[in-house]
Amino acid sequence: MLKDNGFRETGGEKTEGSSILEREDVTELARSGVLMDSEERSGTVVFRNHTPVCFDAGNGDFELLPVTEALKRYDWVREKYYFYAVEEDMDEMTLRCARQENPVGFFLRVREGGRVTLPFQAAMYMTEENVEQIVHNIVVVEKGASLEIITGCLTRQDILRGSHLAVEEHYVGEGARLVTTMVHSWGPEVIVHPRTGTLVAEGGEYESRYISLKPAKEVVINPMVYLNGRGAVARDLTIVLSTEGTTVDTGGVITLIGKDTSAELLQRGVCIGGVLKQGGLLVGKERCRAHVDCAGMLLDESGAGSIVSVPGLEASHPDARMSHEASLGKISPEQVEYLMSRGMAEAEAITMLIRGFLGVDAAGLGEDLDRQIARIVDIAGHGEA
Amino acid sequence: MAGNRNILEIRELVVQAGDKRIIDGLNLTIPCGEVHALLGPNGSGKTTLMMTIMGFSNYKIIGGRIVFKGRDITNLEINERARMGIAIARQRPPTIDGVRLRNIMAYQIDRGIGDAERIAAYVKKAGMEEFLDRSVNAGLSGGEIKRSELLQLLMMSPEFSMLDEPDSGVDSGALRDVRELINSLFTLDDNHPAKRKAGLIITHSGHIIDHMSLDKAHIMHRGRIGCSGHPNLMMDRISRFGYEGCDRCLGEVE
Ligand SMILES: Nc1ncnc2c1ncn2[C@@H]1O[C@H](COP(=O)(O)OP(=O)(O)O)[C@@H](O)[C@H]1O
Ligand SMILES: [Mg+2]
Fold this sequence. Notes:
- The structure holds two protein chains of two kinds.
- Chain A has helices at 17-20, 23-31, 67-73, 75-81, 92-99, 333-340, 346-358, 360-363, 367-382, and strands at residues 43-48, 51-56, 63-66, 106-110, 120-126, 131-141, 146-155, 161-172, 177-185, 189-200, 205-214, 218-221, 224-227, 233-242, 247-250, 253-256, 261-271, 275-278, 281-284, 288-298, 306-309, 312-315, 320-329.
- By secondary structure, chain A is of the alpha/beta class.
- Chain A has two domains: 23-331; 332-385, no CATH class.
- In chain A, a hairpin with a 2-residue loop joins strand 1 and strand 2.
- The longest helix of chain A is centred in the C-terminal third of the chain and has 16 residues, at 367-382.
- Chain B has one domain (37-44, 84-253): P-loop containing nucleotide triphosphate hydrolases (Rossmann fold, 3-Layer(aba) Sandwich), CATH 3.40.50.
- Chain B is globular and about 50 Å long.
- The longest helix of chain B is centred in the middle third of the chain and has 15 residues, at 142-156.
- A six-stranded mixed sheet of chain B has the order 6-9-10-3-11-12, sandwiched between helices. A four-stranded antiparallel sheet of chain B has the order 2-1-4-5.
- Bound molecules: adenosine-5'-diphosphate and magnesium ion.
- Residues 17-18, 20, 22, 40, 42-48, 58 of chain B line the site of adenosine-5'-diphosphate.
């Protein structure tokens, strides 16, 4: 076991993540794309409840520190990167996070020109009932550098209750590129309120994918992206499922501040019960191009589930070219039968259609998600007699 | 079933779509190894017949039965029929949003229904490489839809292929490619030393009839098979006189 202060220095030898975690934990983490001891990752951070149990900089070309350590070591972290992309007094949640004496979380920096080829991965993992997890992570991708991060946020399958509050700050430098994939998988009574803010400098590129297929009781996601520099680009894809008894509210605000910036915000949601709210606001302050597209599929026939879809646009510059689109629908029997005529059983056909609708292929998460979606279809199938 | 000489036998079939009786007492037999043409004026129920044989739920069988390879399939699910070896290339297939042709290809390969190498060769032959990552049938021209449908059949190697107007909307330059795809579909039956795979083709032009050696042609009229005969002779007559004679002819028979 690691000690209380248990962080390792960056660049050290590999800690054996899986020797600290039980085998079943390793399996659970894999469900959210976090693969322990995998050759496919450049580094790994795992927080179990309040404790970091793995802090492995692997052989990645980056600097990895506990956020407390980074604040101690570098003055500029507090000046430039601490509660800057996310405002400290934004709301009650951020205030609570800021009030922590020793914030839990990581600081990750890819230095100028550095290219991390394999994805870095992080897990926020809750294994006890009623844990209140508060984390603050800061990611800095400096000029011309590139990084991909996979983050799994999850409760162990037998856990019902808890709350997860995360402040995530991303800084994408000039001509840099950051791709984030976040997979959420929660117990039925968990409350989830992440606060994510991303600043993108000139020519920088930010791509974010958020996937939540095992929803908590209440999920509110409203990431903020600021395209500050000229020609900066953002692409944001949200894929969610809402089930009975859940409220899933996914939004996102992309503010286009620099000249010739562009953004695309896509929301894909399947509702098999509960309340699904989809939003997405684009704010154009300069010459820019942006599109927001919300699409929802309602598979609940009982009338208890609902979808609200509200894409929005705001412009304060005459050359802001912005558009929005929203559609709601159900699975078309004609399409199901078409696929059945190619040999698929009804459930297989529905799975393929949901996959296609959600665009999960595009997210490239592979088999684990496949299995999860198969399960969704099972649940959805119960609605039909 | 061993010793079964007919791949398809339809007896006294009555089919309703919407609240309209479209097929009314139809009989049709297709022996193993034979490919037949289905002719008939627009609206005579040709598409309805194929969709009913495949099992689509918009078409309600209210009388008669369909026997495939000796088994009564009248009440089977679509996918069960597909797995028995029936397949259809549709006249107007729906767009399958989000599902890519590549997904269907992967599905057939995963199931061991299609062999990856052979399928890759078909994709090339059908000129569909650039469409693999698009939603199935989305934004395709008439001719491209035909090739997409035929390609999906080739992936399945069906024992009995139904082609609903595979040549209409295809420009003359591309007709030859379409015909070659069709010929690949009706290659020799693996289970028989000399016979090809069986099928039914709806067509209006002489092109397919002229260039493929079909075994027999049927004219559909008023929800039944009006008459059957030699494909070239029948097509020749129809192209000269149309279906005008059919009314009179059927009137006399009744
Ligand atoms: N789903 C349906 N509901 C109602 N009428 C239909 C339906 N499908 C076909 N029909 C009608 O049945 C008749 C035969 O149609 P179809 O089988 O498409 O003919 P063909 O393929 O020979 O041109 C037409 O009058 C058509 O309008
Ligand atoms: Mg037709």
